[in-house]
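Objective 1.3, modelling of assemblies. Example input:
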Amino acid sequence: MEISDKIHEECAVFGVSTLKEEAAGITYNGLLTLQHRGQEGAGIAVVSKGKILYHKNLGLVSEVFSGNVLQNRLKGHIAVGHTRYSTTGSNTKENVGPFITEYLTGRIATAHNGNITNALELRTQLKSYGVDFNSSSDSEVVSALIAYHITREQDTLKGVIKAGGYLKGAFSLIIAGSENKLIAVRDPKGYRPLCIGKNSDGIAVASESCALDTCGFDYIRDVRPGEVIIIENGKITYEEVVLKNEDETGGLCIFEYIYFARHDSVIDGLSVYEARVNMGKALAREYPVEADIVCGVPDSGLEAAIGYSIESNIPLVPAFVKNRYIGRSFIYPTQDMRDYAVRLKLNPLKANIEGKRIVLVDDSIVRGTTSEKIVRSLKSAGAKEVHMRISSPPFRYTCHYGTDIDSPDNLIANKMSIDEICKQIGADSLGYISIEGLKEACKKCRLSFCTGCFTGHKCKVSVTKQDLEEV
Ligand SMILES: O=P(O)(O)OC[C@H]1O[C@H](OP(=O)(O)OP(=O)(O)O)[C@H](O)[C@@H]1O
Ligand SMILES: NC(=O)CC[C@H](N)C(=O)O
Ligand code: SF4
Ligand SMILES: [Mg+2]
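Predicted structure (tokens):
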């Protein structure tokens, strides 16, 4: 079994409705761009003459698809794709999206980013109505619920809205329907990003705007929290906020700006790059220190390091050479392998660091594996002092909305004080950005935020990763 110790990414969703018969190829490129959000499995489904054809498997996007599959087996004008990081249901082929659900008069393919906190109740209820399930993923529950309500309402839009009203938690959805409709839905809090773009041939919907850029679509806007959008023949035919927010808790995941999203994306009005630079500036104001150089931890600490350097006037210098062929370190299943992975991934650049007092900036400390190893390796390469600065507040609580960490016991900030963590990782000082500093850095964002992993959750959540496997 895979042991998960890090914040898992998200999933990525991408969909397109185009006048040309190349929806699968465009979706493939979209998923390649969004690979950073999920590396366990990938899938694409296309609508073809009232049928849904699909291909999905475990692995990276480039491993799952061949040119032959894309060009000959997945021909169509509408496609929807998914890359997965599991949050509900284990890492198996059956749990890879998109999910295909048949109903009396048609079929849908559903790609989901997020986590449905009442998936267990909904699944039990649907089973009692005779609905069958082939996986233990909450995303299949979403697809089945939508199909069930489309059948009952005898209308796609009404069915989607009805089903959306029953879903709790986080859901950014793209659905391809056999009636040649592409549908985008974002939950009323807007936990996960979702945006739309257009070109002369059609409309694309993506988790992040970087995928619109790389596939040749001009960004139009983000899908609003609670909104349902229908696209037919490459044109938007319906757009309205119809799913209601029940209370004032929750909001867009602030970790999207800290770590998850690619920094060339713009989410809900705020550039991820700009947010990260602002976080670094705030850190320099909150935790100044006398030092010779500022260094970022590749990859996701690099932009905050730029901000720290600008604000403090301390030169920015690379401290590590990164092996670009190694993925994000949490994909390694045992502690031994994780330790090895950090060394393999980041090798200190001795010439830059010998005798230097270093401000080392990273985006987060989860278990503490990365920080401990890199502080040690900088010191053994000759660094005089290492002052660690973190562009997120202490990560103390697990997340229920589309990221995954197995237990609070694995979160170092849940077990130790900041002084103890500083000692544990061997740094000369340690400073985390404040919640206020973080929110100020992200103030251009149009939405309010979820900060649950730093501040705790107000609502009780009723689903665990294994729950649906036992029903
Ligand atoms: O405290 P830890 O348990 O070590 O986890 C924290 C580290 O994990 C993430 O990096 P990761 O290597 O996953 O990806 P990145 O290269 O995109 O920064 C994050 O950016 C931190 O560097
Ligand atoms: N990270 C995600 O968005 C995961 C989607 C879904 N909950 C799954 O486990 O497949
Ligand atoms: S708990 Fe943290 S990681 Fe989860 S949605 Fe909220 S801010 Fe994001
Ligand atoms: Mg990192």
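Residues 329 and 341 are 6 Å apart (CA to CA).
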